[in-house]
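Bench notes, afternoon.
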Amino acid sequence: MGFQFRRVVTGHDEEGRAIVRSDALVASEPRGPGYEANVAWCTSRFPPRNDEALFDDGVPGPRGTRVLVRMGELIPGESDVPSMHRTETQDIAVVLAGTLDLVLDSGEVVESLGPGDLVVQRGTMHQWVARGEEPVRVLFVLMDSEPVKAGSRVLSEDLSVFDGRISPMPGAGR
């Protein structure tokens, strides 16, 4: 397993013309059984600033200010381990390649998400399951959010299945 993606970041020169600030390959890192990913970008404030004097090369800011872009890949058969979790983020998942199921704690399953399909994941208990023969490539955009309120209950982040091994959002100063 393992993959790379190219990350190009633009900016401005002293005259205000568009320039390429960086152009680099980013290698995936293991995040769990059958799942590798890496952060493509994370904001240090919200709303983000595009001023060159504030260029921070995607270093994450404090909780509540982060929008994170992550490229991930799941391997069918290897990523089928229990991974039901809830994050204090609102996520957009775009399937780029392969076939993926979304499993919710209610028992609902959204089957056969394929290239071009998009899921808006709003702090629910969920699990991703790769299907088919080929790796599933997904672009995730995570935005910090408040904990979910359902009736009189507050549904906080639940990452217990990962035993502290991973967190969806990096801390400040990646």
